[in-house]
Amino acid sequence: MLSYRHGFHAGNHADVLKHLVLLGLLEKLAAKDKPFTCIDSHGGAGLYDLFNAHAQTNREYASGILPLWSARPRDPLLTHYIARVRACNPDQRLRHYPGSPILIQGELREHDRLHVLELHPTEQISLQERLGQDRRVRLHLRDAFEGLLALTPPEPRRGMALMDPSYEDKKDYQRAHGTLVKLQRRWPVGILALWYPLLARERDHSRWLCAALSRENLPDMLQLELRVAPQGEEFGMHGSGMIVINTPWQFREHMQASLEELVTILGSVASSHIEKF
Known about the structure:
Elements: H1 13-30, E1 37-40, E2 47-49, H2 53-58, H3 65-69, H4 76-87, E3 96-98, H5 100-105, E4 113-117, H6 121-131, E5 137-140, H7 144-150, E6 159-163, H8 171-186, E7 191-199, H9 206-214, E8 222-227, E9 237-245, H10 251-266, E10 271-276
Parallel strand pairs: 1-4, 1-6, 4-5, 6-7
Antiparallel strand pairs: 2-3, 7-9, 8-9, 8-10
Helix pairs in contact: 1-4, 1-10, 7-8, 8-9
């Protein structure tokens, strides 16, 4: 939806889970010399100022990146994630938070490629300013679900797609389901990662989404969830999850260690869950 602006939510607990999984998958892809392609379905602005009015409205980053900022974790992936955020804040004060296009760009090698889809014209301008000069990156002003299918299979064919709709429109759940199934058929070797919110009971359509995907017999499907509060009855996001298709070897074990330490840092109300479908 063109009304959605991720700046209101930048750096929150959902971003932490999403970007931790993203960096973990990119690490697996980069472990081999062969080049890869990454497709980011909802690019956003690329970089977010946590001091501006959008981010300060609800200060959602206080439940996400803020507790991690001063942490010194033992887990290598958590350490890498925090280092990537610190790289965007050279004065060592938490102000800027990198979105997925910036995080992916930082992991690309010379022959790797990144396609970023974003339909909001203002966010596209921001992406152009930050990524437009990188020859490894292509920016696309187009609908995420349509663009994902149009761009696959990519070249190089090794790679992954990150899907993170806003779900402000309830139809996004059905579109995410249909697109993911079609995407896997068009790009059977691609790693596919879909983010979804965990909402209050009356608004939580993610249970339907996960159940529908589990019936599709998709290969090597893994579910990861992070909760930071009890589920409410009417409003609010108390956590989020990721579905990964074509999960790399030993990725579950690596993420289990990362999420266990993440939960410890976020506090006693936080919890995580990983399950193979």
